[in-house]
Amino acid sequence: MTNPKGSFIWYELMTGDPDGAARFYGAVVGWTIAGAADPAAPGGVDYRMIGRSDGGNAGGMLALNADMLAGGARPGWLGYLYTPDVDAAVAAITADGGSVHMPATDLPVGRIAMVSDPQGAPFYVMNPVPPPGMEGMTSDVFSVTEAQHVRWNELSTDDPEAAIAFYRRHFGWGQEGAMDMGAMGSYRFLQLGDIGIGAVMPCMPQMPVSAWTYYIGVDDIDRALAAVAAEGGQLLSGPHEIPGGEFSATGLDPQGAAFGLVGPRR
User: Fold this and answer.
1) What pLDDT sits at residue 40?
2) Diameter over CA atoms, the chain
3) Fewest C-beta in 10 Å: which of 20, 77, 170, 181?
């Protein structure tokens, strides 16, 4: 894999209603999600690929079964961060105050583990196994500019300073630049190399726990928000104009997973 360490290389939607989620994100974003589980998914789980209009994948969707729900899993989006050594990353994260929710596991697609940072925001670490003949592949699920890709990764945390230091230590991220939000604190921008990948902000009253929000690119923010309402989703904030003239918004899908949207106003 040619992505640098610390890249977001996959995004996963956990949902209790895969067919309903497929209809919702199809209308809002334009994705195509398979109508049945991928037969290659290990362990008999219901896992479906999220397809973009350009033929690539935006991520995957995991149907939450009764055992997962009983174990505390809930609808939501999770990001995967690339590391060439999953076991070393897990050991370092736990030694630094993070937690392990799923130990390092080998799957046909690679070695993964689910962890959380010391403030409690969960994510995966992964060292993927590219398909034969594609050893030099690059993940393109994240794009700064393109619709149907995640375009922005936003961490709300109860300790922004500690969170920034944590991701800097373990994934090589930079933090340069900030936007003053007044009483809400600073919105501090994150970089991997020379690419702006997202931001860190203090937890807001409506979101009191540390968590990541992933902003999905759309072709028209007004069309997308109309589809959110029509398809049973809930708008939480926005649309807000952002630097560059585009607009962002956050919401909940009909199954309760939080998401963000970003795109132009046509």
Assistant:
1) 67
2) 53
3) 181
**Pick among 3.40.50.2300, 3.30.70.60, 2.60.120.260, 3.10.180.10: CATH of 150-263:** 3.10.180.10
- Whether the pLDDT of residue 34 is over 70: the answer is yes
Q: Is the pLDDT of residue 37 over 80?
A: no
Residue found by looking up tokens 């609808």 in the block: 75
Side-chain half-sphere of 43: how many Cα atoms within 13 Å?
A: 10
Tell me, what amino acid is at 55? G
The residue whose two tokens read 């920034």 is: 164
Average pLDDT over residues 16-28: 96
Which residue would you say has higher pLDDT here, 69 or 196?
Answer: 196
Q: What's the full length of the chain, in residues?
A: 266
For residues 248 and 43, the model is more confident at: 248
CA distance 178 to 186: 6
Over residues 39-68, mean pLDDT:
89
Q: What is the pTM of this model?
A: 0.95
**What gap in Å lies between CA 128 and CA 164, rounded to an integer?**
25
Average pLDDT in the 142-162 region? 97
Beta bridge partners of 115: 100, 123
8-128: CATH, from 3.10.180.10, 3.40.50.20, 3.30.720.10, 3.90.226.10: 3.10.180.10
